[in-house]
Write a structure and sequence with these properties.
The protein is α/β, with parallel strands linked by helices. Helices cover 40% and strands 18% of the residues. The protein binds nicotinamide-adenine-dinucleotide and uridine-diphosphate-N-acetylglucosamine (UD1). Uridine-diphosphate-N-acetylglucosamine (UD1) binds next to helix 8 and strand 9.
């Protein structure tokens, strides 16, 4: 474990009063969604403390966060499976609450290396929860996914829809959800929010924070962005024979900044009597692959060459959220439209054609 927090920065933070701010431990805080949430936490007056093993992210993000927020994030280079290291973080800091992003997230990879996924995601979470108990911290917001709904019986999907994961990655999310529900049932002191994200896209409006996938992207928008910037030749559209308006898959894309804000709302509503609750985090509206391509072309002024290919194994036709419950219970609602998501994603890609590794 290492902790870089230069003395000068600590003094400046203290001078700005952040020593009194609520400390929020952000696991996976160096990653795509985590880094945007760290920025939103600063803006709302919290003191984020990052824990990341940098397995799928780049410490350059710390410089970007410092430039954008004026604060050098306090951070630990630490794997969640390092139980002793994690306990030390809780001993050395008065952590008020945890936002738990850290995890591996590639569906295809999880099918090839299930043990690594169960170890990283499930064992990592068990360690985290044990360390929280030891450190007397009982508030947690967990990054789940719409993948826990599998192939839904109907859309829009409510939080009451049946849960059934179809791959090891999804099963780690479902297992962690079950662990959290059991924990809440065992001890009413726990305050738990499970956020089921739909399809996060977009980037910070400055263009200096964004998604930086390792290798060839699996997800639609990062793939399109890399085609637009000339890194990849053409997009494969996986199937045009679905039962949707234009035959291509329909998803609920949500701006990463709206997603970040949902975590703040979730932190605010955490109270013991709520126990463990799950919330859909989407816009409530679906767009097809062809609609997304068109919106990206408009935002970027680039033509996206594509070819229709067979369906991708495991894909579903349509997935979008019923957001009525999260709107009401979290007092939160997505603000950004598809065009803004694409414009922001493009700005990030254009300014950082090689991601953070330039
Ligand atoms: P990301 O890979 O950019 O961020 C995850 C971060 O966790 C990375 O910085 C990685 O280095 C770190 N990490 C992974 N395992 C770790 C471990 N054992 N110890 C310490 N750090 C570790 O991913 P993201 O897109 O920001 O996703 C964040 C969370 O949201 C993940 O749990 C993911 O499953 C979930 N989620 C993401 C999406 C999406 O499309 N991006 C959709 C639904 C749910
Ligand atoms: C994928 C994951 C899901 C995860 C979600 C997070 C799979 C099978 N599922 O879902 O578990 O929670 O990301 O965002 O990986 N598409 C193309 N060409 C591409 C890439 C995608 O046509 O190169 C299509 C897909 O068929 C789909 C849509 O674009 O219709 C969105 O795909 P993607 O971004 O991968 O998200 P999901 O399939 O929703």
């Amino acid at each position: 474990m290492s902790n870089e927090n230069p003395t000068g920065k600590v003094a400046r933070d203290a001078a700005q009063g952040t020593e009194q701010a609520r400390k929020v431990l952000v696991t996976g805080g160096g990653g795509y969604i985590g880094s945007h949430t760290v920025l939103s936490l600063y803006a709302a007056g919290y003191q984020p403390i990052l824990v990341d093993n940098w397995s799928n992210s780049n410490p350059v993000v710390l410089d970007r966060l410092e430039t954008l927020s004026g604060m050098r994030p306090m951070h630990y280079k630490l794997d969640l499976r390092d139980a002793a290291g994690l306990n030390e973080v809780f001993t050395n800091n008065e952590i008020d609450s945890v936002i738990h992003f850290a995890g591996l997230k590639a569906v295809g990879e999880s099918q090839h290396m299930p043990l690594e996924y169960y170890d990283n995601n499930v064992v990592g979470t068990l360690n985290l929860l044990s360390a929280m108990r030891g450190g007397a911290c009982s508030k947690i917001v967990f990054s789940s996914s719409a993948t826990v709904y599998g192939d839904p019986e109907s859309v829009p999907i409510t939080e009451q829809a049946s849960l059934r994961a179809t791959n090891p990655y999804g099963r780690t999310k479902l297992m962690i959800e079950e662990i959290l529900r059991d924990l809440s049932a065992s001890d009413p002191q726990w305050e738990i929010a499970i956020l089921r994200y739909f399809n996060p896209v977009g980037a910070h409006a400055s263009g200096s924070l964004g998604e930086d996938p390792n290798g060839e992207p699996n997800n639609l928008v990062p793939y399109i962005a890399q085609v637009a910037v000339g890194k990849l030749k053409q997009l494969s559209v996986f199937g045009d024979d679905y039962n949707t308006a234009d035959g291509t898959g329909v998803r609920d894309y949500i701006h990463v900044l709206d997603l970040a804000q949902a975590h703040l709302s979730a932190l605010e509503v955490l109270v013991p009597e709520h126990g463990c609750k799950a919330y859909n985090i989407g816009t409530g509206r679906g767009y097809s692959v062809l609609e997304v391509i068109k919106a990206f072309e408009l935002a970027s002024g680039q033509t996206i060459p594509f070819e229709i290919k067979p369906r991708r194994t495991g894909d579903i036709a349509t997935c979008y959220a019923d957001v009525a419950y999260s709107k009401k219970a979290l007092n939160w609602q997505a603000k950004f439209d598809l065009q803004t998501m694409m414009a922001d994603h493009w700005r990030w890609q254009k300014q950082n054609p090689k991601g953070y590794s330039e």
